[in-house]
Amino acid sequence: MSSETLRDDLDMEYVLELASAFDKQARGHVVENPDIIYEDSNPLCGDKFKVQLKLNPEGEIVDVGFTGRGCAISRASAMVLIDEIQGHSYGDVNDVTRDKLIDELGIEINSAVRLKCAGLALRTVKTGLQQSGYKVASPEEEDWAETD
Length: 148
Hints:
- By secondary structure, the protein is of the alpha+beta class.
- It has helices at 3-25, 72-85, 98-105, 112-131; strands at 36-42, 47-55, 61-69.
């Protein structure tokens, strides 16, 4: 087994660990009296998330919950996203990009469909914030864009 194959296996193992953590800690978590509820999907693969966000009066995201279904990449990416935004100002969501989430996963994604999987949770959060009147960067600018 080559060292590159071993690295890929280890990276995917980490993704599976994150996906499992998402299943145990975040999926199905119901946010009490959420300020934002938004649902989005990746029509190319069938992944679908609904996010619930609770913000305090200062704009800090104090609770995040997801329901829905997704592949290991979308679930792992959602888990990383929760760690990035919970306890932070909604404006800090602008510092999170799909590429940053993928870097945290430690894998290389070359498929446009899988890139959309990796960005689904972020797209859902950003669009939910926007539609609720919060000023954040549009997910279409990079997180959902077609790739070469």
